[in-house]
Design brief:
Nucleotidyltransferase, domain 5; 398 residues; binds adenosine monophosphate; globular; 38% helix; alpha/beta
């Protein structure tokens, strides 16, 4: 069985999966794991394979040591890179700027281009490059492929992609809407086209990726025409810990009047805001139990979240004109029936009617949750970004 190693390298962690590109979206990967606490005194590697979980605890100096140890652990249980038919390595790269609209086979030049984009993603791209460098040196004879989170949104119309700020400043500093979660929106929208039995070019849809990070996209005939995340993944919907859209004047106010530094405001908006900022928790299971107990902060957080989500859905309905499908995906979108029900409540005059019984069904399969007479079909489609990356990687490598 041909397998692809999918790597998602963060600043202190590496997520890895060995994926059969021909597997179903809801099948477990052949193996999966996580290297954590890189650079700290106590590192940890976990590996899941064949239903067993293996753990290795050791100091992990850097990404190179981390991946090396992970490969050793995989070899110990018979799923090391040389034990399997490894055909490609797929790397998740957060920012492709306007340079990349599709996945690319990684060469030294491509790495240099990803490096040039560091100012746009100062936390993410350096870690992605570390992962690429290390994996290329450990597996030099396997093709490596970069798949960009922004790629799907690269061709968005200027009216949606550009901000109304001084044009020269925007050009000089790469200030524009890039969008993120592109691999997920593309994967899910293509899946919906298959489920509807129509070519993607023939359908208009709204995809709602609601996880700890959340974004939505308006997709017209297979091409995105708008998305909620912006120059950074801070914009758009209310998220687990991120504010989503706020008045930019708030930043100046907090800096000038409250005396907060730019770094403090960055932390506030990225880590201490969103649902967590209001209710103190960011997991929707906890939030739900709190609302059930009548906790007012939890209700407020939830209502702000839903209000913002409906605002985006409404604006995308207008942007698209005709909507064939609305699809929920990711941790909240796939699991929280109450979010789905409230997001699309009372929209029957727009042809959107959720069937409460269908909506309640729990499943890891794609499923229709609208009534038969809803003119807009509403779907829940599990996303699988690793599988999408594996498929691109295999395609480019062969
Ligand atoms: P993701 O970022 O896609 O992994 O989504 C993670 C989020 O999904 C968690 O923080 C939870 O808020 C949410 N989630 C996961 N499982 C459930 C569930 N069974 N019910 C409600 N929310 C869930």
């Amino acid at each position: 069985m041909a397998l692809v190693l999918v790597l998602n390298s963060g600043s202190s962690s590496i997520k890895f999966q060995l994926v059969d590109p021909d597997q179903h979206a809801t099948d477990d990967p052949f193996a999966s794991g996580l290297v954590e606490q890189i650079g700290e005194p106590h590192g940890r590697i976990t590996l899941k394979h064949n239903g067993d979980k293996h753990v290795l605890e050791a100091p992990i100096k850097d990404h190179s040591a981390g991946l090396d140890l992970a490969f050793n652990l995989m070899s110990d249980v018979g799923c090391g890179p040389t034990d399997v038919d490894l055909v490609a390595v797929g790397h998740r790269v957060v920012h492709g700027g306007i340079l990349f609209s599709k996945p690319e086979i990684i060469t030294d030049e491509i790495v240099d281009m990803i490096r040039d984009l560091i100012p746009l993603a100062p936390l993410h791209n350096p870690a992605n490059i570390d992962g690429i460098d290390v994996a290329r040196s450990l597996l030099p004879n396997i093709p490596h492929v970069a798949v960009f989170d922004t790629g799907f949104f690269n061709g968005m119309p200027p009216a949606a992609a550009l901000y109304a700020i001084d044009a020269q400043t925007a050009i000089n500093h790469g200030v524009r809407r890039y969008g993120f979660h592109g691999t997920s929106h593309e994967y899910v929208s293509q899946k919906v086209a298959t489920l509807l039995g129509k070519p993607a070019e023939d359908i208009n849809q709204i995809t709602l990726h609601l996880g700890n990070g959340s974004s939505c996209a308006a997709i017209q005939g297979g091409q995105p025409i708008d998305t909620s995340m912006g120059m950074t993944p801070l914009a758009g919907l209310v998220m687990g810990t991120r504010s989503g859209d706020i008045d930019p004047g708030i930043v100046f106010h907090l800096h000038r009047t409250a005396g907060m530094s730019i770094d403090e405001i960055d932390t506030l908006l990225n880590k201490k805001s969103g649902v967590k900022g209001i209710a103190g928790v960011n997991d929707f299971r906890e939030l739900r139990s709190m609302t059930d107990e009548g906790n007012q902060d939890a209700w407020l957080a939830y209502n702000i979240y839903i209000h913002q989500l409906r605002r985006y859905i409404g604006s995308y309905m207008i942007a698209l004109g005709r909507v064939d499908a609305i699809t929920f995906t990711a941790g909240v979108g796939e699991n929280a029936d109450f979010v789905r029900a409230d997001a699309l409540d009372n929209l029957q005059m727009y042809g959107i009617i959720i069937d409460p019984e269908r909506n309640k069904i729990r499943s890891d399969q794609p499923r229709l949750i609208s009534t038969d007479d809803s003119t807009v079909q509403v779907w829940v489609v599990p996303t699988n970004e690793e599988l999408a990356i594996a498929r691109y990687a295999k395609q480019l490598a062969s």
